[in-house]
Amino acid sequence: VEAWGIRRVRSALRAARKKDHSFSSGEILGSMCTAPHAIAAEAHALFLETNLGDPDHFPGTTAIETELLEDFRVLLHAPKKAQARFLTGGTEANIMAMYVAREKTGKTEVVLPEQAHFSFEKAARLLGMTLKWVPSHGGRSHPGEMAKAITKHTALVICVAGSTELGLVDDVRAIGRMAKAAGVPLHVDGAFGGYILPFLNRPSHDLRVAGVWSFSLDPHKVGMSTIPGGILCLRDGSDWDYVAVETPYVSTDKQTQLQGTRPGGAVAAAWAVHRTLGDAGFSKIIDRCMKLSRWLAAGLEKKGYELVAQPDLTVVTFRAENPVALQESLSNAGIRVNVVPRFGAIRIVVNPHVTKAALQKLLDAL
Ligand SMILES: Cc1ncc(COP(=O)(O)O)c(C=O)c1O
User: Fold this and answer.
1) pLDDT score recorded for residue 204
2) Closest-CA residue to 261 (of 43, 50, 48, 93)
3) For ligand 1, is residue 216 a contact (CB within 6 Å)?
4) 3 state SS of 357
């Protein structure tokens, strides 16, 4: 390409960015992601050039990552020997859970509920594993049905703490008991709900639950950090060794992540939000999102809309005669929602950037 010079490039960048929708405008009501916290943006910029794939050059960033992973281990009530890794998001966490399970067990079948995220499909194709999809009841995994699908070839069972379409949380304790009795590792996909549940007064769903082998959660969703940021925590940290490769020419002995060069910016951002808000700050934000979700659900029902399920977390999904057409007309009115084809429905995710005024605008438009 010919050289444009910085001024032309900058103005092209601004023009492209202007075409985007933004969380701060209040328009985006259906996204799993949210506006990064101001301190996340600041931290990301400060650590922009850092590479955790070669940590000797970046001991400060490495220390921040170590602290953050310990914070998450504690948040998930994982035992001391557990180890979390900072990944790129929920997809990589699910791929890695399946990969480690395959290497550990030498088996290739995965039992998962129908509401599990499409990232498992990607993982199965990459890893040459077979998915056994199990019907759910009312959007939640059914331990009995899952148990029936387990065979001697099963490497991993999966359940979901905050489903993508409806935000529903599985009964992790019941599924954990079932998995433990069957002697099969259980991965809990908490990409969405994993950063919400610790701040609600709910029965334990995390690594306190016997039978849970791994748990994922995403700082780049409700966690208000920058993209890319996902966590996978294994109950027994030594299980990471099943996928370790030796790493000559960089300052580590081995790596267990898919990425070689790894951005320290997203790690610093997640650390910064976590430490800025603390548990009390997160609880306040989650409480507000939960209240707004219930308020929206009640408002939709008052207008005659049928909810696919009562909101369990901060996802509100309602049926529409023609969801695609409704999405389009809402979009024309400056309200951006997502379609959930499986239920002929529209999904709203009441994330931290979502205001009551924006939800009222949605209700008025409907
Ligand atoms: C439950 C669940 N798992 C996994 C993912 C994939 O996460 P990511 O898009 O960060 O890779 C999502 C995304 O919405 C999700 O909701």
Assistant:
1) 86
2) 50
3) no
4) helix
Q: Whose CA is nearest to atom 5 of ligand 1?
A: 90
Decide: 32 in ligand 1 pocket, CB within 6 A. yes
Amino acid at 260: G
* Assigned token pair, 181: 């009795």
Residue entry with tokens 């050039």: 49
Under 8 Å CB-to-CB from 51, ≥6 apart: which residues?
57, 58, 261, 262, 263, 264
Peptide bond into 55 cis (omega under 30): no
Q: What distance in Å separates the CA atoms of residue 321 and residue 21, rounded to the nearest whole number?
A: 26
Could you tell me which residues come within 8 angstroms of residue 185 by beta carbon, excluding any fewer than 6 positions away? 101, 104, 105, 155, 156, 157, 179, 213, 214
pLDDT of amino acid 172: 97
> Are residues 220 and 35 in contact, defined by beta-carbon separation less than 8 angstroms?
no
> Measuring from atom 2 of ligand 1, which residue has the nearest CA?
191
Distance 40 CA to ligand 1 centre (A): 20
**Coil, helix or strand at residue 334:** coil
Low-confidence residues of the chain: pLDDT under 70? none
- Which alpha helices (H) appear in 228-345, and where do they start and end? 264-302, 323-332
DSSP string, 290-316: HHHHHHHHHHHHHTTPPBSS--SSSEE
The pLDDT tens digits of the residues spanning 96-137 come to 999 999 999 999 999 999 999 999 999 999 999 999 999 999
Tell me, letter by letter, the H, E, C secondary structure of 19-63: HCCCHHHCCECCCCCCCCCHHHHHHHHHCCCCECCCHHHCHHHHH
Residue 158 alpha carbon to ligand 1 centre in Å: 14
How, if at all, do strands 345-349 and 338-340 pair?
Answer: antiparallel
C-alpha 70/C-alpha 68 separation (Å) is 5
Q: Are 199 and 286 in contact (CB under 8 A)?
A: yes
217 Cβ inside 6 Å of ligand 1:
no
